[in-house]
Amino acid sequence: MANNKLPQGATADNDKINIHDSNEMRVWIKAFGISREKLEAAVLAAGTDAVKVRLHLSKQT
């Protein structure tokens, strides 16, 4: 999570996280290296913007 690169193929515009799309969730889970539950909680806390989710997750450590 050190860099700000977003994963290829996650979404059409690659900057929003759709927690209702299983394929997309798998990409983000792998990109962030976290569990589905942790990703869902981060999206609920920070919103669907991937950069904000990454920032939120970085503050969790």
What profile does the largest beta sheet have? Answer: none
Low-confidence stretches: none
Fraction of residues in β-strands: under 5%
Mean pLDDT: 84
Distance between the termini: 11 Å
Structure classification: mainly alpha
Question: What are the secondary-structure elements, in order, as H or E?
Answer: HHH
Question: What share of residues is helical?
Answer: 40-55%
Computed CA radius of gyration, to the nearest angstrom: 10 Å
Kindly state the number of beta strands.
Answer: 0
Structure, explained:
It is built from 3 helices and no strands. With 61 residues, the chain is mainly α. The termini are close together.
Walk me through the topology.
Layout (H helix, E strand, L loop, with lengths): L21 H11 L3 H11 L3 H9 L3
Helix pairs in contact: 2-3
Give the tags.
61 residues, mainly alpha, 3 helices, 51% helix, globular
Quick summary:
The chain has 61 residues and is an all-alpha fold. The protein is 51% helix and 0% strand.
